Amino acid sequence: VTRILAEETLLSDAAPLFLELIAVELECEVGSLWKTDLAINALRCVESWSASGEEFTTFSEASAKTAFARDVALPGKVWATGKPLWIADLAQEPGLLRAAHFAPAGLRGAFGFPIIDRQIVIGVLEFVGGLQPGYDGAQDYDLMLRVTEVTDRIGHIPHVLYHWRKIPGSTASVIDAKGGASSAGQRALEA
Predict the structure, then answer these.
(1) Do the Cβ atoms of 54 and 46 come closer than 8 Å?
(2) 17, 8 in Cβ contact below 8 A?
(3) Cβ distance 108 to 86 under 8 Å?
(4) Which of 58, 38, 39 is closest to 48 using CA atoms?
(5) How far apart (Å, rounded) are the C-alpha atoms in residues 29 and 25?
(6) 91 near 121, Cβ under 8 Å?
């Protein structure tokens, strides 16, 4: 990603390249760049990449026609908090505005993180998919380990990056809430 940003002078030229690179490396089906539009106080999808297949293209096209206010849907929540957010099961997400496009594409999970300039969130990167079968209850470990494989540097960030919501049946409350979560986490470490 650093090389792409160094070689391209415009974000509009670099975005498709780094969205594809990150999405492919993390085995996500869709990657989107959302940028703040202060004229309407919303986020707009300004660029996206999707894996081959009409169902993924349809999802990307739906995103391109959507604007999110602060705290609405995953991009809006990341914008509001300024922190990364992970949604393991999109079907459980209340008020999912693009729900009609998730199910047909088989998209189950998503994550997003803010693009910050001078302590102001100016955009959001959103990636949909990337959940590996067999890691239920340990998807966050698996994803973080795969992210570390494609980065040149990992630094210590001295604050909480995201909060896993405690819902009934979640391992955020009780590790044994999902049978096999501990062993799934161990498999993620060994993979």
Answers:
(1) no
(2) yes
(3) no
(4) 58
(5) 11
(6) no
Which structure tokens are listed for 98? 């693009």
- For the stretch 63-67, contacts whose Cβ atoms lie closer than 8 Å and that sit 24 or more positions apart, written own/partner, are 63/30, 63/32, 63/98, 66/97, 66/98, 67/37, 67/40, 67/42, 67/43
Beta-carbon contacts of residue 85 (< 8 Å; ≥ 6 apart)? 74, 77, 78, 111, 112, 113, 162
Rounded to two decimals, the pTM is 0.69
Pairwise pLDDT comparison (21 vs 158), residue with the higher score: 21
How many CB atoms within 10 Å of residue 70? Answer: 16
- Number of residues in the chain: 191
Q: What does the pLDDT read at residue 82?
A: 92
According to the per-residue pLDDT averaged within each range, which of 7-21, 96-110, 120-134 is highest? Answer: 120-134
Query: Contact, 16 vs 49, CB < 8 A?
Result: yes
| Nearest alpha-carbon partner for 85 in 120, 117, 136, 124 | 124
d(CA 18, CA 26): 12
Angle in degrees, 0-180, between the axes of helices 181-190 and 139-149, rounded to the nearest 10: 10
**pLDDT at position 78, please?**
92
Instruction: Count Cα atoms within 13 angstroms, Cβ side, for 52.
Output: 0
